[in-house]
Q: What sequence folds into this?
Protein backbone atom coordinates (compact mmCIF):
# COMPACT_ATOMS: atom_id res chain seq x y z
CA UNK A 1 0.00 0.00 0.00
CA UNK A 2 1.95 3.00 -1.31
CA UNK A 3 -0.49 5.75 -0.23
CA UNK A 4 0.07 8.86 -2.35
CA UNK A 5 2.78 8.67 -5.00
CA UNK A 6 4.20 11.72 -6.74
CA UNK A 7 6.51 11.85 -9.73
CA UNK A 8 9.03 13.21 -10.37
CA UNK A 9 10.77 13.92 -7.05
CA UNK A 10 13.03 16.61 -8.53
CA UNK A 11 12.82 18.68 -11.71
CA UNK A 12 14.67 21.62 -13.20
CA UNK A 13 12.92 23.59 -15.93
CA UNK A 14 13.89 26.54 -18.04
CA UNK A 15 11.58 29.54 -18.11
CA UNK A 16 8.80 28.93 -20.62
CA UNK A 17 9.02 25.15 -20.61
CA UNK A 18 6.01 23.06 -19.71
CA UNK A 19 5.65 19.97 -17.58
CA UNK A 20 3.14 17.82 -15.77
CA UNK A 21 3.44 16.65 -12.19
CA UNK A 22 1.82 13.30 -11.60
CA UNK A 23 -0.02 12.12 -8.49
CA UNK A 24 -1.69 8.79 -7.81
CA UNK A 25 -3.32 7.38 -4.68
CA UNK A 26 -4.27 3.80 -3.95
CA UNK A 27 -6.52 4.41 -0.93
CA UNK A 28 -9.75 4.82 -2.90
CA UNK A 29 -9.99 8.43 -1.68
CA UNK A 30 -12.54 10.73 -3.25
CA UNK A 31 -10.76 14.07 -2.81
CA UNK A 32 -7.35 15.11 -4.09
CA UNK A 33 -5.36 18.32 -3.75
CA UNK A 34 -2.29 20.12 -5.02
CA UNK A 35 -0.35 22.41 -2.70
CA UNK A 36 2.81 24.42 -3.08
CA UNK A 37 5.13 25.08 -0.16
CA UNK A 38 7.37 28.12 -0.04
CA UNK A 39 9.59 29.29 2.85
CA UNK A 40 7.62 31.40 5.31
CA UNK A 41 4.38 30.90 3.37
CA UNK A 42 3.21 27.56 4.64
CA UNK A 43 1.19 25.33 2.35
CA UNK A 44 -1.02 27.04 -0.19
CA UNK A 45 -3.71 25.26 -2.17
CA UNK A 46 -3.40 25.45 -5.94
CA UNK A 47 -6.31 23.28 -7.09
CA UNK A 48 -8.42 20.53 -5.65
CA UNK A 49 -10.81 17.85 -6.82
CA UNK A 50 -13.56 17.03 -4.35
CA UNK A 51 -14.58 13.99 -6.37
CA UNK A 52 -13.88 12.32 -9.69
CA UNK A 53 -14.96 14.60 -12.53
CA UNK A 54 -14.75 17.86 -10.59
CA UNK A 55 -11.94 20.37 -10.08
CA UNK A 56 -11.87 23.75 -8.34
CA UNK A 57 -9.43 26.57 -7.88
CA UNK A 58 -7.66 27.10 -4.59
CA UNK A 59 -5.77 30.12 -3.29
CA UNK A 60 -3.04 30.31 -5.96
CA UNK A 61 -4.28 28.77 -9.25
CA UNK A 62 -2.72 31.21 -11.73
CA UNK A 63 -0.24 29.56 -14.09
CA UNK A 64 -1.48 26.02 -13.39
CA UNK A 65 -4.01 23.60 -14.78
CA UNK A 66 -5.17 20.25 -13.41
CA UNK A 67 -6.77 17.07 -14.64
CA UNK A 68 -8.56 14.48 -12.54
CA UNK A 69 -7.87 11.61 -14.89
CA UNK A 70 -9.78 9.05 -12.82
CA UNK A 71 -10.41 8.41 -9.15
CA UNK A 72 -6.75 7.51 -8.55
CA UNK A 73 -4.89 10.17 -10.52
CA UNK A 74 -4.72 13.95 -10.30
CA UNK A 75 -2.13 15.77 -12.40
CA UNK A 76 -0.85 19.35 -12.24
CA UNK A 77 0.40 21.07 -15.38
CA UNK A 78 2.58 24.11 -15.77
CA UNK A 79 2.05 25.38 -19.32
CA UNK A 80 4.82 28.01 -19.33
CA UNK A 81 7.03 27.78 -16.27
CA UNK A 82 8.18 30.94 -14.52
CA UNK A 83 10.85 31.39 -11.81
CA UNK A 84 8.05 32.31 -9.37
CA UNK A 85 6.85 28.72 -9.67
CA UNK A 86 10.03 27.42 -8.07
CA UNK A 87 8.67 25.57 -5.06
CA UNK A 88 8.02 22.22 -3.45
CA UNK A 89 4.74 20.75 -4.66
CA UNK A 90 2.72 18.34 -2.57
CA UNK A 91 -0.21 16.25 -3.66
CA UNK A 92 -2.66 15.04 -1.00
CA UNK A 93 -5.80 12.98 -0.84
CA UNK A 94 -8.63 12.38 1.60
CA UNK A 95 -11.57 10.02 1.73
CA UNK A 96 -13.97 12.78 2.75
CA UNK A 97 -13.03 16.43 2.35
CA UNK A 98 -11.38 17.76 4.43
CA UNK A 99 -10.64 15.00 6.91
CA UNK A 100 -7.74 12.58 6.95
CA UNK A 101 -5.34 14.24 4.51
CA UNK A 102 -2.48 12.02 3.34
CA UNK A 103 0.37 13.80 1.60
CA UNK A 104 2.70 12.54 -1.09
CA UNK A 105 6.45 12.88 -0.69
CA UNK A 106 6.66 16.05 -2.75
CA UNK A 107 8.24 17.33 -5.96
CA UNK A 108 11.00 19.90 -5.73
CA UNK A 109 10.74 22.10 -8.82
CA UNK A 110 13.29 24.71 -9.83
CA UNK A 111 12.63 27.07 -12.72
CA UNK A 112 15.71 28.88 -14.03
CA UNK B 1 -11.80 32.88 2.72
CA UNK B 2 -10.35 31.65 5.97
CA UNK B 3 -7.18 33.29 7.37
CA UNK B 4 -5.00 31.27 9.74
CA UNK B 5 -2.22 32.93 11.69
CA UNK B 6 0.42 30.91 13.53
CA UNK B 7 2.92 31.96 16.21
CA UNK B 8 5.76 31.80 16.88
CA UNK B 9 7.56 31.19 13.60
CA UNK B 10 10.55 29.69 15.43
CA UNK B 11 10.77 28.11 18.86
CA UNK B 12 13.71 26.64 20.75
CA UNK B 13 13.27 24.66 23.95
CA UNK B 14 15.47 22.55 26.17
CA UNK B 15 14.88 18.83 26.09
CA UNK B 16 12.25 17.93 28.66
CA UNK B 17 10.58 21.34 28.62
CA UNK B 18 7.16 22.03 27.13
CA UNK B 19 6.45 23.73 23.80
CA UNK B 20 3.31 25.66 22.88
CA UNK B 21 2.33 26.80 19.40
CA UNK B 22 -0.70 29.03 18.88
CA UNK B 23 -2.99 29.61 15.92
CA UNK B 24 -5.92 31.91 15.29
CA UNK B 25 -8.53 31.66 12.58
CA UNK B 26 -11.00 34.14 11.15
CA UNK B 27 -14.04 32.21 9.93
CA UNK B 28 -16.40 31.11 12.69
CA UNK B 29 -17.75 28.42 10.33
CA UNK B 30 -14.46 26.49 10.54
CA UNK B 31 -14.98 23.32 12.53
CA UNK B 32 -11.95 21.09 11.97
CA UNK B 33 -8.44 21.90 13.16
CA UNK B 34 -5.59 19.49 12.37
CA UNK B 35 -1.92 19.79 13.23
CA UNK B 36 0.83 18.50 10.94
CA UNK B 37 4.47 17.75 11.65
CA UNK B 38 7.00 18.04 8.84
CA UNK B 39 10.53 16.78 9.33
CA UNK B 40 13.25 18.18 7.11
CA UNK B 41 12.82 17.01 3.53
CA UNK B 42 9.77 14.90 4.40
CA UNK B 43 6.04 15.16 3.80
CA UNK B 44 3.68 16.73 6.36
CA UNK B 45 2.09 14.13 8.60
CA UNK B 46 -1.00 14.48 10.73
CA UNK B 47 -0.19 14.28 14.43
CA UNK B 48 -3.46 15.33 16.08
CA UNK B 49 -6.73 16.99 15.17
CA UNK B 50 -9.73 18.46 16.95
CA UNK B 51 -13.28 19.21 15.92
CA UNK B 52 -15.26 22.20 17.10
CA UNK B 53 -17.52 20.21 19.41
CA UNK B 54 -14.50 19.34 21.58
CA UNK B 55 -12.45 21.73 23.72
CA UNK B 56 -9.36 19.60 24.27
CA UNK B 57 -7.81 16.42 22.93
CA UNK B 58 -4.74 14.62 24.16
CA UNK B 59 -2.53 11.88 22.70
CA UNK B 60 0.38 10.91 24.92
CA UNK B 61 2.75 13.92 25.02
CA UNK B 62 0.79 16.11 22.63
CA UNK B 63 -2.47 17.93 23.22
CA UNK B 64 -4.56 20.44 21.37
CA UNK B 65 -6.94 22.98 22.90
CA UNK B 66 -9.63 24.94 21.10
CA UNK B 67 -11.36 28.15 22.13
CA UNK B 68 -14.19 28.71 19.66
CA UNK B 69 -15.24 32.02 21.19
CA UNK B 70 -11.80 33.52 20.76
CA UNK B 71 -11.17 31.60 17.52
CA UNK B 72 -7.85 30.20 18.57
CA UNK B 73 -6.34 26.78 19.08
CA UNK B 74 -3.01 25.63 20.43
CA UNK B 75 -0.65 22.67 20.25
CA UNK B 76 1.07 21.61 23.47
CA UNK B 77 4.02 19.23 23.51
CA UNK B 78 5.22 18.12 26.92
CA UNK B 79 8.52 16.48 27.87
CA UNK B 80 10.02 17.44 24.53
CA UNK B 81 12.60 15.19 22.92
CA UNK B 82 15.12 15.86 20.12
CA UNK B 83 12.96 13.88 17.69
CA UNK B 84 10.20 16.46 18.19
CA UNK B 85 12.36 18.93 16.24
CA UNK B 86 10.44 19.72 13.04
CA UNK B 87 8.17 22.28 11.44
CA UNK B 88 4.62 22.21 12.75
CA UNK B 89 1.64 23.49 10.78
CA UNK B 90 -1.84 24.21 12.03
CA UNK B 91 -4.83 24.30 9.71
CA UNK B 92 -8.51 25.16 9.78
CA UNK B 93 -11.29 24.04 7.52
CA UNK B 94 -14.91 24.76 6.80
CA UNK B 95 -17.24 21.81 6.21
CA UNK B 96 -16.88 20.39 2.71
CA UNK B 97 -14.04 22.75 1.95
CA UNK B 98 -10.26 22.65 1.84
CA UNK B 99 -7.70 23.35 4.56
CA UNK B 100 -6.18 26.73 5.19
CA UNK B 101 -2.73 26.31 6.68
CA UNK B 102 -0.75 28.50 9.02
CA UNK B 103 2.75 29.55 7.99
CA UNK B 104 4.47 27.01 10.22
CA UNK B 105 6.58 26.93 13.40
CA UNK B 106 10.10 25.58 13.32
CA UNK B 107 10.65 23.82 16.64
CA UNK B 108 14.16 22.97 17.81
CA UNK B 109 14.63 20.81 20.90
CA UNK B 110 18.09 21.31 22.37
CA UNK B 111 19.55 18.18 23.99
A:
Amino acid sequence: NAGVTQTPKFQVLKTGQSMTLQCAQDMNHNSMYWYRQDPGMGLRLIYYSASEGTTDKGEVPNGYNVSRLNKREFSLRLESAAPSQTSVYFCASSEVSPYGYTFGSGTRLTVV
Amino acid sequence: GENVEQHPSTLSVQEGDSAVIKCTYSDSASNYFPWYKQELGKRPQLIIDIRSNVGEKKDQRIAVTLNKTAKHFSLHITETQPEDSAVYFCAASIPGNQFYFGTGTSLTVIP
